[in-house]
Amino acid sequence: MSNTTEVDALKAEVTHLRVEGEQMKAQLRAQGEEMKTCVERVQELVQAIQISGLQILLPAPHLASPSTSEPSRLANTQ
Fold this sequence. Notes:
mainly alpha
């Protein structure tokens, strides 16, 4: 492969990567806007719950990761 051919191939790859980068930036901006909308909606819901005086008790989140790769199973209570 000649140097000119190699340089042309690298230029084409750089151009392609730039286009992909711009597309990814646009997707991230759109996702950021969606997240902002979701956060605003949750804040509205929290305010509505607070105003109504409704008490909601949520279980504490289970933050410990499982010690094995097996799926967790509910205890048999029968």
